[in-house]
Amino acid sequence: xxxxxxxxxxxxxxxxxxxxxxxxxxxxxxxxxxxxxxxxxxxxxxxxxxxxxxxxxxxxxxxxxxxxxxxxxxxxxxxxxxxxxxxxxxxxxxxxxxxxxxxxxxxxxxxxxxxxxxxxxxxxxxxxxxxxxxxxxxxxxxxxxxxxxxxxxxxxxxxxxxxxxxxxxxxxxxxxxxxxxxxxxxxxxxxx
Length: 192
What we know:
mainly alpha; Arc Repressor Mutant, subunit A; 2 domains
């Protein structure tokens, strides 16, 4: 169990890492940079993280923890147009609220450091399961007009990710809100 000071140190290390990741590529950030920014000894860093890679994974886990909990709760959502639009609204709000962090995480060098396949295995696949369960319940109830809930969950998660990825990295001439509005129309057509 961490003490209050231990929690503070842990948080300070993650904050310093976040600042440095925003300033330069994750592969160029060193443990020396992090401990200098944090004002701790190198040995103290290793009390919390066994390596820079472990720190980066913890950083991603911490930043996505709220989204992970929300995705698990999606199975309780209903299927009215308003409820489906609420799901898209939540995603839009999440992207807007965490835009700076998402820009760091969607940088190709960040993906390269952790490995795209490892990131997909850890996050994308984890989010597909609750989404698939939600879709399957709607399919079985006859509320959703889909044939394969697993396929549709994969399709929707990948589509949402790719679209917002383009907006986050400024590769799309549309705002986050515009993408969200168009997604509502698309998702409702796909599911109903």
